[in-house]
């Protein structure tokens, strides 16, 4: 059994991790932690005001601490379900002690120090680990993930945005003179569990935000190797991301070519479902670890639709998928 902890376990992503890891046959979950001054320290993760769907399933206590020395010598794996700056600060401690770290935040996703000053508001201090980090887009980077000590699990929008586009770029089907236009709608859980004016029930509306400035644009463009226009929207629903991508294909490209490209990369990938006709909606994936992809081509205009649960394929499920790949377990262990 490998010993693991989840830091930030009371959050939306952390609680999903707790569910998957607790039932994972090769993982012993030795601690669920929250910040040192957390109001939730000492509570069970399954308490009613936390994640009561875990009642009788994961009834473990949340430990409020910033001192991980009690666990460090007995630890194989750390999941950081913490905000970007927190992951940035604490990941090196675990890494220097030989743990494998799966970071769900953006702290190690793009190997460019200026990216962090421009988009995250802090100066990155750990270039050494940025150089070593592997981007955990699981279907595409499995060989690198197998060797990695630090896996930067992709953002929720970047996962659903890149998965439909990558096969088409790889096969040279897109007309690059037109940047793909990505319009994405996220449920409110994408903003995390901490209350703020923007995520309270009466204030949430369908609203675009981060126009030309959202940090996921450079994350997507960097890992696609293709510029994109990315516009996120907040929707008044709890969970899920719906992505609509409009792009232009090269002269002569047919629907069969698009389907063939998607199947070439995904037919043996258990967490991606490609639709041969019609296209998915959020109900296809909520509560499930899949990313579903559909498309329609008219003349040279292609519309791709992709959907995922932001907390699952967009966060916790992809992190566990990466761990399964890293340790040579079946890729879907504990997920399906
Ligand atoms: N929500 C989503 O859809 C997605 C989230 N992510 C990323 O995953 C990470 C977690 O997101 P999410 O679950 O939504 O966030 P939440 O705000 O819901 O949870 C954050 C967790 O971190 C804990 N925490 C805060 N400060 C510290 C600290 N200094 N040390 C240890 N724990 C701390 C919080 O508990 P407390 O404050 O009580 O200590 C809480 O358990 C973020 O980096 C986010 O960007 C990635 C993809 C999708
Ligand atoms: C709805 C909402 O607010 N979503 C968040 C993105 C989700 C997230 O947690 O960001 P990472 O994927 O980079 O970790 C946002 O736009 O900032």
Automatic annotation (TrEMBL):
PANTHER family attached to this UniProt entry: N-ACETYL-GAMMA-GLUTAMYL-PHOSPHATE REDUCTASE, CHLOROPLASTIC-RELATED (PTHR32338:SF10), N-ACETYL-GAMMA-GLUTAMYL-PHOSPHATE REDUCTASE, CHLOROPLASTIC-RELATED-RELATED (PTHR32338)
User: HAMAP family of this UniProt entry?
Assistant: ArgC_type1
Q: Which GO terms describe its molecular function?
A: N-acetyl-gamma-glutamyl-phosphate reductase activity; NAD binding; NADP+ binding
Q: Where in the cell is it found?
A: Cytoplasm
Q: What EC number(s) does its UniProt record assign? A: 1.2.1.38
Active site, per annotation: 156
Q: Which reaction does it catalyse?
A: N-acetyl-L-glutamate 5-semialdehyde + phosphate + NADP(+) = N-acetyl-L-glutamyl 5-phosphate + NADPH + H(+)
Mind telling me which InterPro entries this protein's record contains? AGPR, AGPR_AS, AGPR_dimerisation_dom, AGPR_type-1, NAD(P)-bd_dom_sf, Semialdehyde_DH_NAD-bd
Pfam families per the UniProt record, alphabetical: Semialdhyde_dh, Semialdhyde_dhC_1
Q: Which GO terms describe its cellular component?
A: cytoplasm
Query: Which enzyme class, named as a word?
Result: oxidoreductase
What the entry lists under SUPFAM superfamilies is as follows:
Glyceraldehyde-3-phosphate dehydrogenase-like, C-terminal domain (SSF55347), NAD(P)-binding Rossmann-fold domains (SSF51735)
A GO BP annotation: L-arginine biosynthetic process
User: Which NCBIfam families does UniProt cross-reference here?
Assistant: argC
> What does this gene product do?
Catalyzes the NADPH-dependent reduction of N-acetyl-5-glutamyl phosphate to yield N-acetyl-L-glutamate 5-semialdehyde.
The entry's family comment says: Belongs to the NAGSA dehydrogenase family. Type 1 subfamily.
Name this protein carries in UniProt: N-acetyl-gamma-glutamyl-phosphate reductase
**What are the entry keywords?**
Amino-acid biosynthesis, Arginine biosynthesis, Cytoplasm, NADP, Oxidoreductase
What organism, scientifically named, is this protein from?
A: Gilliamella intestini
Signal sequence range: none
Q: Which residues form the Semialdehyde dehydrogenase NAD-binding domain?
A: 3-148
Pathway of this protein? Answer: Amino-acid biosynthesis; L-arginine biosynthesis; N(2)-acetyl-L-ornithine from L-glutamate: step 3/4
């Amino acid at each position: 059994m490998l010993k693991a902890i989840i830091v930030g376990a009371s959050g939306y992503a952390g609680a999903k991790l707790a569910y998957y890891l607790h039932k994972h046959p090769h993982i012993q979950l030795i601690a669920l932690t929250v910040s040192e001054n957390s109001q939730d320290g000492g509570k069970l993760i399954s308490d009613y005001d936390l994640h009561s769907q875990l009642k009788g399933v994961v009834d473990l206590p949340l430990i409020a601490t910033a001192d991980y020395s009690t666990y460090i010598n007995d630890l194989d794996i750390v999941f950081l379900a913490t905000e970007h700056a927190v992951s940035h600060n604490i990941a090196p401690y675990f890494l220097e002690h030989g743990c494998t770290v799966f970071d769900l935040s953006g702290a190690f996703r793009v190997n460019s120090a200026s990216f962090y000053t421009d988009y995250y508001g802090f100066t990155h201090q750990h270039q050494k680990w940025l150089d070593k980090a592997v981007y955990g887009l699981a279907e595409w980077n499995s060989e690198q993930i197998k060797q990695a000590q630090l896996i930067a699990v992709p953002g929720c929008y970047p996962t659903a945005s890149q998965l439909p586009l990558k096969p088409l770029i790889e096969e040279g089907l897109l007309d690059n003179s037109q940047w793909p236009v990505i319009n994405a709608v996220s449920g409110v859980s994408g903003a995390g569990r901490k209350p703020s004016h923007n995520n309270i029930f009466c204030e949430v509306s369908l609203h675009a935000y981060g126009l030309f400035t959202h940090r996921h644009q450079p994350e997507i463009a960097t890992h696609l190797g293709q510029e994109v226009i990315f516009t996120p929207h907040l929707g008044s629903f709890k969970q899920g991301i719906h992505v609509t991508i409009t792009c232009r294909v090269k002269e002569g490209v047919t629907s069969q070519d698009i389907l063939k490209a998607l199947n070439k990369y995904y037919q043996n990938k258990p967490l991606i479902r490609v639709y041969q006709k019609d296209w998915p909606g959020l109900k296809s994936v909520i509560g499930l670890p899949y990313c579903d992809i559909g498309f329609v081509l008219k003349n040279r205009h292609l519309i791709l639709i992709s959907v995922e649960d932001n907390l699952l394929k967009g966060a916790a499920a992809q992190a566990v998928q990466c761990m399964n790949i890293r340790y040579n377990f079946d890729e879907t262990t504990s997920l399906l």
